[in-house]
Amino acid sequence: MVKIGLIGLGYLGKIHLKLLSEIDSFELVGIYDIDKSVCVALAEQYKVKAFESAGELVNACDAIDIVTPSNTHYGIASECIKKNKHIFIEKPATSTVEEAKSISLLSNKFGVTVQVGHVERFNPAFVAASPLINNPQYIDFKRLAVYNPRGTDVSVTLDLMIHDLDLLITMVKSKIAKISANGLKVISNTADIANARIEFENGCVANITADRTASGNTRKLTVYQNNTLIKIDLLNKITTVNKFKNASGETKNMVITPGKGIPDKEVIIEYPIILPTNAIKEELIAFHNSINTATKPVVTIEDAIDVLDLAFSIDEKILNVDLN
User: Fold this and answer.
1) How far apart are CA 88 and CA 102, in angstroms?
2) From the CA atom positions of the chain, what is the Rg in Å?
3) Buried-most residue among 139, 156, 169, 252 (CB within 10 A)?
4) How far is it, in rounded angstroms, from Cα 290 to Cα 271?
């Protein structure tokens, strides 16, 4: 059994605490937060120990779940690794690409597991769609959210779009050829709305929109492949696959008549089975399994480096335009 500790008890940290207490393969040794009153109250609620310092908790564990502000990730993670502790770090992994690269080097030196919390990889709608995604030619992402001050210390690129950047890099196995981006400040001091167009060497193009000033929440992506359209609703956990083939004979499926000598197309609509899983719980279970089997994590620190590099490249493009 892996002895794990949790550092950080904010909104997301509380969710991690509840889920860690439910995963039998982890022994939740204790928790720590700079707000001692919150830490003590939650320790009493979950019947775990509230540690007086992060260092004391780290020493008592095999692994640490880091759910603190991103500007603290590097300091905590590096100290954990130097003490031979496995770590799970929430996204964004670090504040800079250089810090993430340093964590990668340290993890290799000390032989520990580092997994990063890009949770949409574990979204059951994306998991169901993944086997069907083999040669994307165009991908459209839309991630809209009602304004929440939490997370606005960084741009919407690092706050929201970063989820979709991770999925994009996972789906498209090609080098990036060109990045175009624009953004706008609406409420905070950083870009609240951003759009990026990313072109890959293999010809695939992605259009990504992130907006944290919307009137409602949306998390959708559409993957266009040859004769196939895959719609993934990450928020409502629905995946729809539209397959197109030349119509022949009688069919109960929808038929589209393109005209101008193009053969009629039969539309076959499929709904892959979506398992009723909790994505955060699944990523924590995957973290345990990676430690237990000494295998590569589903989301590595090297994955996070690529995502951060792309996110900062987009932000650099945005800063070159007038955000106001």
Assistant:
1) 16
2) 22
3) 156
4) 31
User: Position 144: which residue type?
Assistant: L
Distance CA 278, CA 68 (A): 21
- Among 90, 42, 47, 46, smallest CA distance to 66 is for 90
DSSP assignment of 210-243 equals EESS-SS-EEEEEEEETTEEEEEETTTTEEEEEE
- Domain 2-117+279-299: CATH superfamily is NAD(P)-binding Rossmann-like Domain (3.40.50.720)
- pLDDT tens per residue, range 16-49: 999 999 999 999 999 999 999 999 999 999 999 9
Say how far apart CA 210 and CA 214 lie, in whole Å: 10
Cβ-contact 281, 26 below 8 angstroms:
no
Q: In this structure, are residues 247 and 266 in contact, taking their beta carbons and an 8 Å threshold?
A: yes
Angle between helix 11-20 and 36-46 (nearest 10): 20
**What's the topology of domain 121-277+310-319?**
Dihydrodipicolinate Reductase; domain 2 (3.30.360)
**Is there a contact between 22 and 47 (Cβ–Cβ < 8 Å)?**
no
Amino acid at 81: I
Q: Tell me: cis bond preceding 258? Omega within 30 of 0 counts.
A: no
Domain extents in the chain: 2-117+279-299, 121-277+310-319
Determine the 3-state secondary structure of 211 from DSSP: strand
CA distances from 266 to 162, 172, 280 (A): 36, 28, 38
Q: Dihedral sign, CA of 201, 205, 211, 216?
A: negative
